[in-house]
Amino acid sequence: MGSGATDVVVVGAGVIGLSIAWRCAQRGLAVTVLDPAPGSGATWTAAGMLAPATELHYEGRPLLALTLDSAARYPGFVAELADATGVDVGYRRCGTLQAAWDAADLAALRDLHAFQSSLGIESELLTSRQLRAAEPALAAGLPGGLWAADDHQIDNRMLHGALRRAAGGAGVREVTARVGGWLRRGQQVVGVRTESGDRFEAGTVVLAAGAWSAAVAELPAQTGPSTPAGLQVPAGLQASAGLPAEVVPPVRPVKGQTLRLRGPSDLLNHVVRGAVRGSPVYVVPRGDGSLVIGASSEEAGFDLGPRAGAVYELLRDAQLLLPVLGEVRFDEVSTGLRPGSPDNLPMIGGTVVDGLLVATGHYRNGILLAPLTADAVAGLITGEDPGIDLTACDPRRFSRSEVSA
Amino acid sequence: MGSGATDVVVVGAGVIGLSIAWRCAQRGLAVTVLDPAPGSGATWTAAGMLAPATELHYEGRPLLALTLDSAARYPGFVAELADATGVDVGYRRCGTLQAAWDAADLAALRDLHAFQSSLGIESELLTSRQLRAAEPALAAGLPGGLWAADDHQIDNRMLHGALRRAAGGAGVREVTARVGGWLRRGQQVVGVRTESGDRFEAGTVVLAAGAWSAAVAELPAQTGPSTPAGLQVPAGLQASAGLPAEVVPPVRPVKGQTLRLRGPSDLLNHVVRGAVRGSPVYVVPRGDGSLVIGASSEEAGFDLGPRAGAVYELLRDAQLLLPVLGEVRFDEVSTGLRPGSPDNLPMIGGTVVDGLLVATGHYRNGILLAPLTADAVAGLITGEDPGIDLTACDPRRFSRSEVSA
């Protein structure tokens, strides 16, 4: 496995970490990515919706600017990936139908439509008949819906595979290892060491470990020169208490489950969403007939066990919207941990510790925000201006608000 | 892989085939078992209920004699397996609670209880309060139930593993290969050949291929001497049309799905069954906390894809009986094909073709009937009398009834 010195170490090889690594390597930087199980986190469980409009929430205006910007970057991002790797990542510009479950839900969709319009987001209200004409597999009798023509999808697992290949092709070194601690010189972060003791020094470390970002930030730090080989140093002598508390990103794991079914590839034409008796559910049809159903949302710590009740509820609600789903093949249950953030906005940027950037807290929008996050972080490291206003994502906003409170 | 001559060839290494092979080897016979994927069929998907009483149906008196006999053989069978292998096969004498869903269902259970009593099977009607006291995780408000103290369970997967080890220890040769055709000498069956051309000659061939038994019986036959090595024989020259139609066992695949959840090992004390709005469901608690939920029943040919609607219905009905199941871990969906029989009775015994025995068509009772089937077939081959009346299981009954019709 070995150690080494490099320009950038990225901790985390999910879609966020690899996108950053790839963009940095494209700019001529030497990059190493460390992950004990690349792409096994939220990257694997995600459904890959790219949905600024239908994921819009009333409190979410600052987030909207980011999601719209990143959605606009997607066509170029995907085209570049295809050029670099020859991999089709299943980017489908299929649009999204949000079906209303009942009259109250339809009224809520009308309000959402008005809110979207006030922000310049195009969407269209549909009658019951228009909804069913757009997606004949929908249950009869739904009162109407909303058509979001610009909410698309990508196959997140294929995206991860392509990013891995593109990063490798651009010279990124991928190390399958768990980070065990930080390397510091004075107040500065100068690298990480793995659990097995390998040291990776770098001018910049980017913490992109998703739901595990806080736990990684809380690992112990080692200061001073490397321990000379062969010399046994008493445990703890060179270990400090770790990084300052204010750089620990306040991410929390938000457990999500998705199901994967498989039907004929022409079963659905669009992403279908709904809120069945208030409970949100979506169905994302891939080009190969795979149907991703999501997603549960639970605050259950780092427990990754799929909950039988969540499987049941997703199947129930998805079948109520699309009865034909009862007849298709059941392929998989997947459970992941979203990196939840206190204000539902990610943390992207520098910290109070020199040499340490973070890119985490993407919560429900990690796949969508990957192109923007990668461009932003690469810009911060190289000094290029990617034209992204990161004020709302400043990782230091939480420590600041504590000071001013 | 090689070929060979042996006393007995068993086609099929599920629980039925391996039990037969083991019993034959114990009696000094040289046995070879062939299967392309040992134990991957109904053996793997089964829940392992040993339930003569609660599986009793009004038309099922002849079956009852067999299931009671085999249930009585289980303690000795399991003890011998444990002696031979050191493997605990999860035989739990836990009894079975059949919960009534509503008043009509309770009335049906009262009738079943009376029918059981008339046949000398012990069971006990329970009040709502007694039912809940016996199994506190049951939903509140169920009107009563039936206690079948002698309906137990076994871990069918551990049973299969133990049988494999015991058979191997007794000298059974297991060959991982798919049978491609029959070897005949005159009217007699004298062995099988594999798809890759290996020949296995035997004094007796036992067809125990579960749901695939008819398809195997319909394979082409090869008569006359072996093809000399190196000599290319024109295709078809030595191939006859196969075995006579009347020895093809009329088994059909009946698709079943089971789920495996996982909870605390003390969640349930007994097998729990019910018929929620007429739809049967059962939950079998293993000693390790695994909870097997079954089982769907569909006539869908040889399709092995798990159906999303069946997963949904099993979770729904199991949760209606045992609400706590919504909170436990979802581990697995398994799909298997039961070997259905026209009269729901197995086919065990000789055929009109010398050298060919069949042991198939066990439908919902393959695990339960394994000890009886193995003793019966070993008795038929060695001439020992196992004390089993196989009249109702005679494989020739279907061709006879066609003649008399």
TrEMBL record, chains A, B:
<dbReference type="InterPro" id="IPR036188">
    <property type="entry name" value="FAD/NAD-bd_sf"/>
</dbReference>
<dbReference type="Pfam" id="PF01266">
    <property type="entry name" value="DAO"/>
</dbReference>
<protein>
    <recommendedName>
        <fullName>glycine oxidase</fullName>
        <ecNumber>1.4.3.19</ecNumber>
    </recommendedName>
</protein>
<dbReference type="InterPro" id="IPR012727">
    <property type="entry name" value="Gly_oxidase_ThiO"/>
</dbReference>
<dbReference type="InterPro" id="IPR006076">
    <property type="entry name" value="FAD-dep_OxRdtase"/>
</dbReference>
<feature type="domain" description="FAD dependent oxidoreductase">
    <location>
        <begin position="7"/>
        <end position="378"/>
    </location>
</feature>
<comment type="pathway">
    <text>Cofactor biosynthesis; thiamine diphosphate biosynthesis.</text>
</comment>
<keyword id="KW-0560">Oxidoreductase</keyword>
<keyword id="KW-0784">Thiamine biosynthesis</keyword>
